[in-house]
Structure formats: structure tokens, C-alpha cells
Specification:
Number of strands: 0
Helix content: over 70%
CATH class: Mainly Alpha
Order of helices and strands: HHHHHHHHHHHHHHH
Largest sheet: none
Mean pLDDT: 84
Number of domains: 1
CATH architecture: Up-down Bundle
Radius of gyration: 22 Å
Low-confidence stretches: 401-407
CATH topology: Formate dehydrogenase/DMSO reductase fold
Structural class: mainly alpha
Number of helices: 15
Distance between the termini: 25 Å
CATH superfamily: Formate dehydrogenase/DMSO reductase domain
Shape: globular
Length: about 400
Amino acid sequence: MKMYLRFLWRCFRLSFVGDWRYYAWMLLLSVIVLLGLNAYAKQLVYGLVTTGMTDQVSWGLYIANFTYLVGMAAAAVMVVIPVYIYGRRELHDLVIFGELFAVVAIIMCLLFVQVDLGRPDRFMHMLWRFNFPVSMLTWDVIALGGYLLLNLHICGYLIYCAYRGVHPSRRFYIPFVFIAIAWAISIHTVTAFLFVGLGGRPFWNAAIIAPRFLASAFAAGPAFIILTLQVIRRYAGYHVGDDALKLLRNIVTIALTVNMFLLICELFTEFYADSAHIVSIKYLFFGLHGHYGLVPWIWTATVLNSIALFILYLPFRRSLRFMNIACVCMIVGIWIEKGMGLVVPAFIPSPLGELVEYQPTLNETLVCLGIWAFGLLLYTIFVRISVPVLTGRVTADDASESHSVPR
């Protein structure tokens, strides 16, 4: 226990050490977090009237970010599967960065749910009156909470073993890895069921939503990890081989192809069959009765995803510069598609036929930026702690020697 507490203390101290770029990045994120916290304080005082949500559109930017981040968290499994199922042992250490990203994404998901509730005490109501197994929301709480604990255990155990210089015991983390693989699929599937199960919103009543959720998650998540690994390789001095980036590139290519195919299938079904929720999808893509609020959003997402897919299938996709462009296009395009392009259209028109458009307010946007900045702050600290431990620059032996040498 004494060694573990010393390990935590050294990690805490290490998070404050870096060059000027590290301090500048952390200062920028801290300022954005404080702006977001101030905006949330205003929301607590005045209520959800500070947001763009109304009685007709009761889910907005908060739930859009929540839906997107659940997928990003689930995508960490795309790094785990090649290592533990297909035996790519050279990528073993990279799993930790994917798992750490999953931890941060789940924490951000919980924060977005919290701010969407309007009042913090409502979160306690959901815990004390656990309507299991009837409510899909309780299933989502279990899925997110369980996935968070699994990834915390896997990351913490592997990093602590590296700190002590001992080989990890397979029985203490391998079973949890395989459970996490299945759990990662479940968290996004359960989230999709939250939408699909709402019969009053016909725009979501399609069985294809769950597969689309998974396909888009397995594209955007690894795309973010590709960019992260390059930053770690360049600025943290940690060796990330091109084979890892090549493997992740192949994953996002397949996942984005499946996502675009499922989107085409859904569009054909709705427009050709003229189904019940054709009104919402017409509003989304072409506008309705002079209301065009979401048209620029969805066409921007479609163009960005198409550009990314085009780049990934061309010969020059092997260039890191073009691959990074494709990754950025995917991250932004899928965020719009799964956020503003999925959550908001289901409320327009309302079940009573009202056309009330949704536009995020400045205060609402600042809260979202604050949560994103807090997540990036956490992930930066986690990476800052993990890299020296994994490379052997910080070990338990160093700590014992430093304590034995008089100052």
C-alpha cells in the first residue's frame, strides 16, 4: 500500500512537469474549463432557459455530445481486438492509450448527462429509484458505469505493473479485457436502444440505428487515436510504429465504408418507401415549409465524410498528411451526423405538427466547450503520466533510490 500511495503521489507531481508547450496547452484548456464552469453556474441559477432547448425540442447539444462520446469510448476496443485476439503484441502498449481515452470519454458522457438534467439532484433520483430492468436509462447507467470501471482497472493495473517493473499477471487483466470488448459494443447498442425505443419519435424507429452507431463509432474513435498517437510520438518521445497507424487506418476505412453504406440504405428506404418519418428526414436534408436550420449541418457532415472516404481509398492515403486530413474530416463529420443530424431532427416537427427549430445558445456552447476542454485536460495528464512509466523513465526503483539519497 505504501508503494502504491507513493506511485500516486509521483503521478500527481509528474502531471505538473513539462516544457513551455505543455504549460501553454494546459493553460488554454484550464481557461476554457473555467469559462464553461461559469456558464454552467449561470445555467444553475436561471435554469435550462439559458440553452436553446424548448418544450418542443427537449434534447439538444448536450445529448448530441453524449451520443457522440459514447461511440468514441466504445471505439477503444478497436485497438484492443488486434492485440488480444489477433496476437499483435507489438501494439500492446498502445492499448493503454486507447483505454485511457475510453475512461476520459465516459467521464465526459456523464458530465453531459449531468448538465442536461438541469439540476444536479436529479441525478441522485436516477440512482435511488433504479427502475431496473424496465427503464432503458438504467441499462445505460449500468453499461457506462461498468465500462468505466473495467477500463480504469485495466489501465491502472498495467501502468502500475510497468512502474514496478514486473510482468502483469494475465489472470488479473486478460478476462477483463475480453469483458470490456463485449461491454464496449453493449454501451453503444444500449444508447441506440434509448433512441429506438421512443415510439413517439418515428425518426428514430429504425433497427439500422444500432449498427450505424457502431460503424460510425469504429470510424471516429480510431481516427482520434491516430491523431493522438502522432502527437505522442512527436512531443512525448514515445515510439509509435507506422504499423500501428497503418492498422488503425485500415480499421477506419472499413468502418467509414460500412457507415456510409448504411446511411445510403436508410435514405433509400425512407425516400423510396415514403415511410412515417419522411417528414423529419426531409426537414433534415432539404428543409420544410421555410425552415432550413439543419440543412447546412447535415450536408457539411455528408461532404466531410465523403472527402474522408475518398482520401482513404486513394493511393496517397499512405501519406500521413492526407491521412490526418481524412481523420479530421471523419471526426467532425460524424460528430455532426450523430449529433445535430440525429438528435434534433426527431423533434422537428413535434408530435402535434409544430415546427420549432433549435439553435444552440452561447451559454450552452460554452458549457460544451468546457466539458470537452476538461476531457482533453484529463487525457493530457493521463498521457503525461503514462509515457514516462511505460518507457522506464519513472520506476519504483528510482523512487526508492531517491528516498535513500540524502538531500
